[in-house]
Amino acid sequence: MKEFTVCGVQIAPKPNDISYNVGKIKEWAKKAKKLHNPDLIVFPESATTGFTPNMPISEFYNLIDPIPGKVTEEMEKLSKELDAYLVVPMYEKGEQPNVVYNSAVVIGPSEGIIGIYRKTHLFPTERLSAGGWSTPGKEAPVFELPFCKLGVMICYDGDFPELARELVVKGAEVIVRPSALLRSFDIWELTNKARAYDNHVYFVAVNAVGPDAGNNFYFGHSMIINPIAQKLAQARGTEEIIYAKLDPDPIKYVTYGASTPMIFDHVEDRNLEVYKNIMKKSKCPFEPAKRIPY
Fold this sequence. Notes:
By secondary structure, this protein is α/β, with parallel strands linked by helices. The protein has helices at about 20-35, 55-65, 70-80, 160-170, 185-200; strands spanning about 5-10, 40, 85-95, 100-110, 110-120, 140-145, 150, 175-180, 200-205, 210, 215-220, 225, 230-235, 240-245.
């Protein structure tokens, strides 16, 4: 990894107005470039529509774009214009009717589309099988950028330490978490810090603000966490930009500003013999109010 600057752009998408939201993404990306000259700019989950469509799946399927498509063409132009890498979360039209992925596309100024991550852990309300609209992805890619190896998790994905660990075992140095998260700030902060500290990676969590078409209101508070769980930046509950310069040598000391050397590595120090059952199907020991299957 090389030293680089990342921006999290916390915006309120206009529900289901893709043209408007593409314009807003461009506006805020240009503002981020002018203020902080970032190498990487990250937007919230479903930034082109908002999270909840609040329309029949067939109608929503016809509203959105495939990848590549018109939206990504505009984002490729933007990336090239700004000479910055972009993570643009958007619903993706699948090849089969009514197959919609909750995706994030990684775009480079010279490369164009580098790759796509499709959300693998769908929040219960969005699952197509339960009356929602999204189909889960099946892969956890790590993207090679000139300055880092990048993993992507989307919102509810961040509740699963297994996914973050999978990305890190594959080489990720930075994980971004575009989100439209409604649960408490405590859970948001806890899971962001835990995923960073569990794996000694940088964690860039960018949440939406404002309402979606389902009248859900998102609280923002995007944050950038370093590999020893120190918060480098945090947004408020409004549209704004956060940024941080990421040090390529971040775990020399056990806490920020201290002289005590770091002598452990959570990834290398795993006792793999203990985890033989981790891939078995199971459930928590307590019953939620309702179980919604995939």
